[in-house]
Design brief:
The chain contains 3 helices and 10 strands; from the N terminus they run αααββββββββββ. The protein has about 240 residues and is α+β, with helices and mostly antiparallel strands. The strands form 2 sheets. It has a 5-stranded antiparallel sheet, with no helix packed on it. A hairpin with a 3-residue loop joins β2 and β3.
Length: about 240
């Protein structure tokens, strides 16, 4: 028996020595400490859960209505999903905007025109009958010995012994042109006229073609004047 005890003690000493030399060998103290930590963590987790439950219950008790009912939970409103706009849709939107702007512009212009018509006053046109007791004095110039020109504000007469060959107008230049058959030699003559309708008279020679030309510069378009032959003279009247 004594010998068995000695063997048991030797084995225990050997195991203790091995545990001190090798830290990875489990001991009873380690297992006990591990069990204690696990138990403490479980206790702490349970305490935290209990505390959260108590707070939740307290919050619920505070929100109880006077009639003993709990408030209804508000439904969670989901935000609408944002739609993706394509390039074609953007182009279509721009076209619609341009059409709307065009329509608005037309409406504005129409309103302005109607307003202008309303604001426009009708002017009374009074026709003044010419007085027969007042005679218009003609002015006379003689650029050449055989050409005499008489004129006033409303008419101009070219007096010469030569026959009129033709007449035509230059609308873009406000000129009335009259050609006379003659074989004459002279330099170009130009005269300024003091008249409301007739500005200048220029007489040019075309001896090689047997005519000379009288050019009358008018204030208005030549088509608004009348050309006639009276008593051997050519008359231009307004």
């Amino acid at each position: 028996m004594k010998k068995l005890s000695l063997i048991t003690l030797s084995l225990f000493a050997a195991i203790s020595l091995e545990a001190r030399e090798n830290p990875f060998v489990s001991t009873n103290a380690y297992e006990e400490e591990k069990a204690r930590i696990i138990e403490q963590n479980a206790i702490d987790a349970q305490a935290a859960q209990s505390e959260a439950y108590i707070k939740e219950m307290q919050k619920m008790m505070e929100s109880i209505r006077p009639d003993g009912t709990l408030p209804e939970k508000k439904p969670v409103v989901q935000e609408p999903k944002k739609e993706i706009v394509t390039k074609d849709e953007i182009k279509e939107l721009l076209k619609n905007v341009e059409k709307q702007n065009a329509v608005k512009t037309q409406q504005i212009v129409k309103k302005e025109l109607e307003k202008a018509k309303e604001d426009q006053t009708t002017k009374e046109v009074v026709f003044v009958k010419p007085r027969t007791d007042i005679q218009v004095e003609d002015k006379t110039i003689k650029p050449l010995p055989y050409v005499e020109i008489s004129y006033n504000d409303n008419s101009l007469s070219i007096n010469t012994n030569y026959e009129m060959k033709k007449s035509f107008n230059l609308e873009s230049e406000n000129k009335i042109i009259v050609d006379f058959e003659a074989t004459k030699k002279f330099t170009t003559k130009k005269n300024e006229l003091s008249s409301e309708n007739f500005k200048t008279v220029v007489i040019g020679n075309h001896q090689e073609k047997n005519f000379f030309r009288v050019v009358v510069k008018t204030s208005n378009k030549p088509s608004s004047y009348k050309i006639s032959k009276e008593n051997g003279s050519v008359k231009i009247s307004n």
